[in-house]
Task: structure prediction
Amino acid sequence: MTSLARPLGLALLLIVLFAAPARAAGTSEVTMQLRPDGVLHVVERADGPLSRTVTTRTRHDDGFDRIYRITNVKGATLDGETLTVPAAGTVEYDVTGAVTPLPDGTEELRWFPAGGPLDAVTVSVRGPGQIQSLACFAGPAASALGCTAASMDESAENAAFEQTGLAEGEQLTVVVAYPAGSTGAQPILERRFDLATAFTVDVWTGGSLVALLLLLLGGLYGLYRSRGRDARVVESESGMYAPLEDGRFAPPDGVRPGQIGTLIDEQADVIDVTATIVDLAVRGYLRIDEQPRGPYDAPDWLLVKLPKAPVQALLPYERALYDAMFDLRDDILLSQLHGGFSAGLARVRDALYRDVVKQGWFARRPDSVRSRWTVLGVLLTLVGLAGTVVLAWQTTYGLVGLAVIIAGAALTVGGQYMPAKTAKGAAALAHTLGFRQFLISGDVNGLPEGQRVELFSRYLPYAVIFDSVDRWARVVSTITTEGDNLYWYHGPAEWDLSKFADSMRTFVMTTSGAISAARQFRSF
Result:
């Protein structure tokens, strides 16, 4: 018998354990009072500690969520959507947004007073008027299963609800309808962000976008016409311009190559500096010596400062370039233009912009005008982006904000065209374009032989600006001179003027590349 006692005792213990009733999940007794101001006051008596998720947001329709705002919590803590009761006792809180006006005129109170796990729940509800109808549901969120019991007293002033057993994740929903005007409360709705609805395309949003876009772009066009267009010049200012006066070189309005480049495109750039270097050589301030090279050597040139050159007669931007090149030295290889030359180019650009204003061709520096309008365009674009985000988040009119973004982008790009020439500048440009026409197609055969070296050489820097180097380099190479060199350009041994066109074309390309490299490939 002793050997059977231990197994028998273990079996009895297992039977007792499995036959014992499950631990109670607890009960909850809830009292709810709907006040005349639409605020629901809830009192819950719990028989033990609990922690459950409280519904604070439900779907209202395709565009909005319904918000239940819980305040004045006592006897518990509410962390976001989690209500925690530390021990048995009473919990109180207020709910705003639980009342909804219905199409039939009544006002519906809907709340979720309890959540599982609970063995039993009782709920009593009292409001500011007689109950018109009532209902309750139990189970998962949005469940359509009725609760255990729902009733009201004979006076229709008090409603009672019961539910036996709520599992984990289930909740009890009570619904009570009161007469119209009992509280006058409205549900709290919060727009739900959805990309498709945020940028809704319909008659109103599309029409608003088009109207605003036309208004903004029309305003920008009007701004350009009033602030960005060059002053008009009379038709007599146009036409081919031959740069000769009493047999001597006379460029239109006395403009120099670097000035012409800035006048035409309103920017001081690499080609303006390249043309100015050639012009300084032609006018006797320096000499360009092409260096001998082997079959695989890169071409190079020595820029030689000429003594007794009247540097005091140079314009400020020319003097800045002259000083940047030589910088207390008498010559410099083109391939060695770096260091101080890079810093000097910034001074050349600044002096060129100041020069075109001093000449009266622009009322303000073109670079400053471009910068100002570009900054305004960027700011308008950022405002459009911020406005689009706000409109998309709060309304269905996110599409309208795109009009401001487009206008800002247009102003950013259009700002490059806002520098406007004065009447004097527009006239100088017309004369310059006439000079360009002469350089491209003018007849040069009638010039005296003795004047051709100087005149054709003086034309060449302007041809650099006008992208006519090939034509004028070939013209210069046909000149008959004493020796194989020009007074401003020397070639290596066994070099003659027949090779000048190729040499000049290569020099212009190499010089422009050296300037760009000195500026670290940034736009000059």
User: Anything to note?
Assistant: Confidence is low (pLDDT under 50) at residues 1-5, 7-24. The first strand starts at residue 27 and ends at 34.
